[in-house]
Design goal:
The chain is an alpha/beta fold. The chain has a single domain, classed as Alpha-Beta Barrel (TIM Barrel), CATH 3.20.20.70. The chain is built from eleven helices and eight strands. The protein has an eight-stranded parallel β-barrel with strand order 1-2-3-4-5-6-7-8, surrounded by four helices. Helix 2 links the parallel strand 2 and strand 3. Helix 5 crosses helix 7 and helix 7 runs parallel beside helix 9. The longest helix has 18 residues. It is globular. Bound molecules: phosphoenolpyruvate. The site of phosphoenolpyruvate has 14 residues, from strand 8.
């Protein structure tokens, strides 16, 4: 099976940015021909972002279809805004909103039966890395989603982001070797279950920036990045997009 996977550079603005910054990105983002670029925006900006340069994603969705869930946003609503991707299971959602593996799995199953492409986020806290339990930890995160989603996991899931929590927003990036080691594990674990996983895009996230992008994105099983802080600076983000091309 072909190992050629097109890279994806995905920005995650988190609860940052404003309408002016969005306009700057629409005007000044240089999307390379050989990679895909995505911005995951705060909900209020999703409806203002339609253009043909880059894809648009949300940062979360409700696990419910509709109903009395004040403040939540459904997949159907995102579809109405022509949103193409949704991040699911980001560690900040898992921490700030107590999202368990079970909730993440339910959101994933819903998203995989919609027209929106989920990006499943997994990754370990520092103490797990220090105890040498990284593979078991990410495997458990994957197993919860695999158990809930069944065949749809391999039939429809295109993108997983490995984001070690100790590297998110801390300026402490995983070395290219550390990141590749976990990406290689994820690829092998999933490919043993279904050969289609050889085509899944595995993104690295955790203080990826304009200086370290080239080395990280050159790794065999790193197919792009999920980028927080550096996705708020147009010049840095353009450098990262170039590094992916
Ligand atoms: C993220 O938000 O997923 C992320 C990786 O953030 P940062 O790049 O700021 O570490």
């Amino acid at each position: 099976m072909s190992e050629v996977r097109r890279k994806l550079v995905a920005g995650n603005w988190k609860m940052n940015g404003d309408r002016a910054l969005l306009n700057t990105f629409i005007e000044q983002l240089n999307v390379p021909q050989s990679a895909d670029v995505l911005l995951c925006l705060p909900y209020p900006y999703l409806g203002l972002a339609s253009q043909n340069k880059f894809s648009i994603g949300a940062q979360d969705c409700s696990e419910h279809e509709k109903g009395a869930h004040t403040g939540d946003v459904s997949l159907q609503m995102l579809q109405d805004l022509s949103v193409e991707y949704v991040i699911i299971g980001h560690s900040e959602r898992r921490q700030d909103h107590n999202e368990s593996n079970a909730v993440v799995a339910k959101k994933m199953a819903n998203a995989l039966s919609s027209n929106i492409k989920p990006i499943l986020c997994i990754g370990e806290p520092l103490e797990v890395r220090e105890n040498g339990d990284v593979f078991a930890y990410v495997q458990a995160q994957l197993d919860a989603v695999l158990a809930q989603c069944g065949d749809a996991f391999f039939e429809k899931l295109t993108t997983i982001a490995y984001e070690p929590i100790w590297a998110i927003g801390t300026g402490k990036t995983a070395t290219p070797e550390q990141a590749q080691e976990v990406h290689g594990f994820i690829r092998e674990y999933l490919t043993q279950k279904n050969a289609k996983a050889s085509q899944m895009r595995l993104l690295y996230g955790g203080s990826l920036n304009a200086s370290n992008a080239t080395a990280l994105l050159a790794q065999k099983d790193i197919d792009g990045g999920l980028i927080g802080g550096a996705s708020l600076k147009i010049d840095d983000f353009n450098v990262i997009c170039q590094a992916a091309s």
